[in-house]
């Protein structure tokens, strides 16, 4: 068992030395953090940490089609501002970002980009509505809260708000679960190796990669490392 102890200790040391970025990431059905550096995982390991996500996430768009460009853009941004002001009253938070999520506030909403909406006199912008997944809250409750908030945001001029795509999830700082996942891998490897007798040890690989994630259910995620171990005779 000396091999697995050494590898686990080294990984825990690296995890304690390197500061994990305090970021929030969006989870889709198949996305993982390894996509950031070109690695495309084809399957989820058996050893995973399954937990409730931190937020239910719904992307929305605000579209405006006032012919005068200056007025159209003024209406769109005014409606975004109104949404920000209404959010707290309806138990939701607003954010921006496709992958890493950042809070959308009165200080930065003017940075939202506008894009054409199929016609020369129509533009849109988009952002995220988040609902914190409290204990016992299911997907329907989160969707209901989002729907009520969307209805509560009054139109500004010809600007309107609508959902864009399906509800997904987000997780705060996935790498904070690294130590727990490594412990799960170590326990599984130790138990498996013990079945082969004291002459066998374990070689573990993949512990140096970032924590990855995948959607497990409407409100849960799988968190894992792309690790694998091999049981071999001790040398």
Explain the overall architecture:
The protein has 235 residues and is α+β, with helices and mostly antiparallel strands. Helix content is 28%, strand content 29%. It is built from 4 helices and 13 strands. The strands form 3 sheets. The protein has a 6-stranded antiparallel beta barrel. The protein has a 3-stranded antiparallel sheet with strand order 2-12-11, covered by helices on one side. A hairpin with a 4-residue loop joins strand 11 and strand 12 (220-224). The longest helix has 19 residues, at 69-87. The termini are close together.
How many individual helices?
4
Q: Characterize the biggest β-sheet.
A: 6 strands, antiparallel, barrel
Average residue-wise pLDDT: 87
Content of β-strand: 25-35%
Amino-to-carboxy terminus distance: 12 Å
Secondary-structure-based class equals: alpha+beta
Rounded to an integer in angstroms, the radius of gyration calculated over CA atoms is: 23 Å
What is the H-and-E element order?
Answer: HEEEHEEEEHEEHEEEE
Q: Would you report the number of β strands?
A: 13
Indicate the low-confidence ranges by residue numbers. Answer: 1-21, 30-41
In helices, the fraction of residues equals 25-40%
What characteristic shape results from the CA principal axes? elongated
Strand order of the largest sheet: 1-5-4-7-3-9
């Amino acid at each position: 068992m000396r091999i697995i102890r050494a590898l686990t200790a080294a990984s825990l040391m690296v995890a304690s030395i390197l500061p994990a970025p305090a970021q929030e990431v969006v989870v889709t059905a198949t996305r993982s953090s390894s996509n950031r550096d070109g690695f495309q995982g084809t399957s989820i390991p058996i050893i995973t940490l399954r937990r409730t996500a931190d937020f239910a996430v719904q992307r929305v768009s605000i579209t405006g089609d006032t012919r005068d460009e200056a007025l159209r853009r003024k209406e769109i941004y005014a409606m975004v501002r109104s949404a920000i002001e209404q959010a707290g009253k309806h138990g939701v938070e607003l954010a921006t970002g496709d992958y890493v999520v950042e809070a959308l506030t009165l200080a930065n909403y003017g940075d939202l980009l506008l894009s054409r909406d199929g016609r020369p006199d129509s533009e849109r912008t988009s952002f995220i509505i988040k609902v914190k997944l409290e204990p016992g809250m299911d997907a329907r409750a989160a969707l209901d809260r989002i729907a009520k908030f969307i209805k509560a945001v009054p139109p500004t001029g010809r600007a309107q708000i609508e959902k864009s795509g399906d509800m997904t999830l987000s997780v705060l700082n996935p790498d904070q679960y690294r130590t727990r996942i490594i412990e799960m891998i170590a326990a599984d490897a130790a138990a498996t190796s013990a079945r082969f007798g004291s002459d066998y040890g374990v070689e573990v690989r993949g512990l140096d990669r970032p924590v990855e994630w995948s959607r497990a259910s409407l409100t849960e995620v799988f968190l894992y490392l792309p690790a694998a171990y091999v049981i071999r005779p001790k040398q």
